[in-house]
Amino acid sequence: MNTLRERLVAEPERFEFGAVPMHQFDLARREFFKILGAGIAVFAVAKDALAQETAPGSPSFHSEESPKEITSWLHIGEDGMVTGFTGKAEMGQNIRTSISQTLADELRVPFESVRLVMGDTALTPFDAGTFGSRTTPTMTPQFRRVAEAARNLLIGVAAKEWNVPPEGLVAADAKVTHPASKRSLTYAELARGKTLAQNLPAEDPITPATEWKIAGKPLPKVDGRAFVTGNHKYTSDIRLEGMLYGKVLRPPSFGATLVSYDDSAAKVMSGVTVVRDGDFIGVAAPSAHEAHKALDAIRTQWKEVPQVSSKEIFSYLKKNAEPSSNERFRHQKGSLEEGLAAATHGLEVTYNVAYIAHSPLEPRAAVAQFADGQLTVWTGTQRPFANRDELASVFHMPESKVRVIVPDTGAAYGGKHTSDAALEAARLARAAGKPVKVVWTREEEFTWAYFRPAGVIEVKSGIASDGKLTAWEFHNYHSGMSAIETPYDVANQLTQYHQVPLVLRSGSYRGLAATANHFARETHMDALAHAAKMDPLEFRLKNLSNARIRAVLEAATRSFGWPRKKTQDGQGFGLACGTEKGSCVAACAEVAVDLASGGVRVVRVVEAFECGAIVNPDGLRNQVVGAIIQGLGGALFEAVEFENGRITNPHFATYRVPRFRDVPEIEAVLLDRKDLPSAGAGETPIMAIAPAVGNALFDATGIRLNDLPLVPSGLGKG
Amino acid sequence: MAMQIEVNGKRCAVSYPPDTPLLYVLRDELGLTGTKYGCGEGQCGACTVLLAGAPRRSCQIPVSAAAAKPITTIEGLEKEGKLHPVQQAFLDAGAFQCAYCTSGMVMSSVVLLQTNANPKREEIVQFLQGNVCRCGTHPRIIEAVQHAAKMMQERAR
């Protein structure tokens, strides 16, 4: 980012030719070459499908706009360096590496000569956000198409130079060669002195996965050295000249309104700026401790209002569901009545799923600076352009005067869609007339961020004597629609999502409701298998014709050694499977229960995952293993507790997250389907772990657990 | 007279009040931002530094208590452009995702290997129990520590 800025100053404006209209981009082409220097540029425009589930009218699903036009572009400089531009953000999912691989692969250049500019509203194309496992399926084909076009441009330049037909030229190893005359020119030489640009519509990938040379390889994380040395600057590490530290005064409880306010003691403190704007109260001071002191000196009184508590949340959700006639939320096939009548076994169970917190280790943070009529905000967000638009709207500035930059971020997991910290830092910076940094405390993160919504899921089913499903009725209250429909073959079914007004501020989370819906479905399927006296794997395969899910089920169970014989008391085995967002997952778990104390330990997990053609098996393995471990938290013990409008466990000491001792032996089996397009992998690997563990606990103890988390304080004695 | 602390072998004057947690002095006053804020409560290990060779949560230590002892931060591990074996091992194993916990993990692991040259898996788990990785990179971190132990033993030979 700094290099680009420096180059903006250092690079003299150059003569341009071959003007191409580029009105659809924020960045004018003149500006583009000014920033990057001369060379060759290609821009792609693509239409893309809905990126993530949306439930209109329900703020809990943060009505994401579907990206209208996803675009990407790249530049080849006079030094041969290739720069790709994308509005996506790097948050640990390793897309900076995988996209660079794709670019290098298609452009036929070394991996090391590619770099990416990401998540900067002034430099990168519009992007709706980094969520919904959409980066790989959208960016991979687009960058391939862009790179292919750039290759052709380079061939065209060489053909003109040598006065030969372009058909006989070959682009490889960062140069264009004319085999007949044994002449060659490097990309750097070809780009020299040029400002050539081309627009194109993005279509399917050019090179099939079977011919990938750089993509498909387990290349290490780009800039890995900067992370092990502490040199990488996350948002919270940024320090600007004259920067102040901001703190926000939070209400004592959700929904509380300000009754009285006295900032006289804080206002007189040296270097301190106090802002009160409606119910927003914040301070900016030369240091964090001075900001704390100033905040403590502000006297406030609040009027609190009654709030629902976690003890009563599930009955509340059930009682307060909105009557919905929205057909979008309802899917029906066959006749439930007939299906239930044909059943020899019936089962009706209610499943509850608690609120959980993302709690990324880097809390929400932003640095805001007003200078020369422009607002620049560095912030760790998944939606830089939405943040920019919100800042522009709140501060009544044109979007062109607001720039949001996302440094590679200390994780998000779906939790950093909103612009809270950005707005707070900017509000304080405007009042103070100096740059301001706001970093949320862990307690703020656990309280004022948003959560994965709680939910109630009711399932009613029937099976025939041969173990075939005859009826399936599935109602989800509040938690969401992701993966709500069963992948199993059942002629008679009804699936419905029921909206409930928000209780806690809720939103996206890795996999969204797919975890809750898979937990309910796969726990239920396990109970049905036992009712039918069938092996859980056999029962699933009998009702499943989806070949991709069957393949991961077979791969996971093979590696796990299913069915396993128990060798000791308290040992249990369970499995679960599913599909979502174009990928498939199956997990097998082994648990050990201490029958005297009720202590639970997950001993081993084998998970098979298939997301089409694998772009980077090393990064994918990291995502899959990470999802299993993160999923174990929500499966076993994570739950946000609240009472009287307060979160009662807003610390790592009271909100338990998975730690080293909780981590089982893990085996990730990756199925590489080179014949299928690459799907995203950030979410689906988290879905199967909770039901697999719950089913293993049933196998170990005969106790069927129908709520998440399964064992927040063990199974209890006896 | 201004307080002084010794960080990575250099004396540094500190103007922040003596009860300021060391973490804020390192990050905000001295610009050593490799040490991370994760919770401010000593629960996550992201702010781990070495104080006279011992691993300490810098968010829990007033700077005054650190004044008489040498402090090592993540920035002090690299010597003449060469990574510490633990850093190199984390890099080789790809033992990070968002990498925000990495500084704390590396610092804790450096201490573990100073006191136990060849830790068993269970000993690594025990030692790093106080360090949170939210991305779930634990197996690779354990692998990295074992790999670092091997490198350090070979180097000592």
Report on the structure:
The complex is a heterodimer of chains A (718) and B (157). Chain A is α+β, with helices and mostly antiparallel strands and 718 residues long. Chain A has 3 domains: 2-221, Aldehyde Oxidoreductase, domain 4 (2-Layer Sandwich), CATH 3.30.365; 235-304 and 364-439, Aldehyde oxidase/xanthine dehydrogenase, molybdopterin binding domain (Aldehyde Oxidoreductase, domain 4), CATH 3.30.365.10; 320-356 and 451-708, Aldehyde Oxidoreductase, domain 4 (2-Layer Sandwich). Chain A is built from 18 helices and 29 strands. In chain A, strand 26 and strand 27 (646-647) form a beta hairpin. In chain A, helix 3 (95-107) runs parallel beside helix 4 (135-162), helix 14 runs parallel beside helix 18 (689-701) and helix 17 packs across helix 18. The longest helix of chain A has 28 residues, at 135-162. Mean pLDDT of chain A is 90; it is low at 1-28 and 47-68. Chain B is of the alpha+beta class. Chain B folds into 2 domains: 3-76, Ubiquitin-like (UB roll); 85-156, DNA polymerase, domain 1, CATH 1.10.150.120. Chain B has helices at 22-29, 85-93, 102-115, 121-127, 138-156, and strands spanning 3-7, 10-14, 48-51, 54-57, 70-72. A 5-stranded mixed β-sheet of chain B has the order 2-1-5-3-4, sandwiched between helices. In chain B, a hairpin with a 2-residue loop joins strand 1 (3-7) and strand 2. In chain B, helix 2 (85-93) crosses helix 5 (138-156). Chain B is globular, with a radius of gyration of 15 Å. The relative contact order of chain B is 0.16. The model of chain B has no long low-confidence stretch (mean pLDDT 97).
Task: Set out the fold topology.
The complex is a heterodimer of chains A (718) and B (157).
Chain A: H1 2-10, H2 29-36, E1 39-47, E2 69-77, E3 82-86, H3 95-107, E4 114-118, H4 135-162, E5 170-172, E6 175-178, E7 183-186, H5 187-191, E8 195-201, H6 224-228, E9 244-248, E10 257-262, H7 264-267, E11 273-277, E12 280-285, H8 288-297, E13 299-303, H9 313-319, E14 330-333, H10 336-341, E15 345-353, E16 365-371, E17 374-379, H11 384-394, E18 402-405, H12 420-432, E19 436-439, H13 442-448, E20 455-463, E21 469-477, E22 493-498, H14 514-531, H15 536-542, H16 547-560, E23 571-580, E24 583-593, E25 600-610, H17 617-636, E26 642-643, E27 646-647, E28 665-671, H18 689-701, E29 707-708
Chain B: E1 3-7, E2 10-14, H1 22-29, E3 48-51, E4 54-57, E5 70-72, H2 85-93, H3 102-115, H4 121-127, H5 138-156
Parallel strand pairs in B: 1-5
Antiparallel strand pairs in B: 1-2, 3-4, 3-5
Helix pairs in contact in B: 2-5
